[in-house]
Write a structure and sequence with these properties.
Layout: H1 3-9, H2 15-24, E1 26-30, E2 35-37, E3 45-51, E4 54-60, E5 63-70, E6 75-76, H3 78-83, E7 90-93, E8 97-103, H4 104-112, H5 116-146, H6 159-171, H7 180-189
């Protein structure tokens, strides 16, 4: 990967930081349909998508549900990596894709030595999490606003939106469960 292309994907990073990123990561290529990781496996690395597109895929009642499509410049896999948890969804190449992969231990070592680019990456991870929580809240509001009737009595629910909400809340240790209208709707739809 050339530093010029990476500079376009990461505006605001210095040439030195870009060079450090290239040294700390490994470039990986994926053909369409190939998995970067599978739902339920340990999160040991994160990926910066540099070209192509990726799909976030979750299994719901034995059926595959595409939750999102990721574009170049996206960080993916960061939640399980940071939390040390399992992947809440699978990640698959939609098109030919190239990523830069950074392993957990590498990122931890870079953060311990306060490398500027690692600190920025940590900030990007936090911002991505905030955006995902906001998107989840928006989808939840949409599902609740569009539900008609009571669960089990003709309610119409957006299964894909509920799958996305379930995956996101699970990643942030806030699984849909217990009581309340949201949890009941989610259980009935999935």
């Amino acid at each position: 990967m050339k530093s010029v292309r990476l500079k376009q994907l990461l505006p605001g990073y210095t040439k030195g930081e870009i060079d450090q990123i290239l040294l700390a990561t490994r470039s990986r290529q994926f053909s369409p349909g190939s998995l970067l990781y599978r739902e339920g496996t340990a999160g040991t690395s994160l990926f910066l998508l540099t070209s192509g597109s990726l799909e976030v895929v979750k299994s719901v009642d034995g059926q595959e549900c595409v939750l999102a499509t990721m574009r170049p410049g996206s960080l993916v896999g960061q939640n399980a990596l940071v939390a040390g948890s399992v992947r809440s969804a699978s990640l698959r190449a939609k098109t030919k894709a190239v990523t830069l992969e950074i392993r957990r231990r590498t990122l931890q070592n870079l953060l311990k030595t306060a490398q500027p680019f690692a600190m920025r990456m940590q900030e990007q991870i936090a911002v991505a999490g905030i955006r995902k929580l906001r998107a989840t809240t928006a989808r939840l509001a949409m599902v609740l606003a569009n539900s008609v009737g009571s669960p089990g009595k003709g309610a119409t629910l957006d299964r894909q939106a509920l799958s996305y909400i379930s995956a996101c809340t699970g990643e942030w240790d806030m699984p849909l469960g217990g009581g309340g209208k949201t949890a009941t709707l989610a259980r009935k739809a999935m």
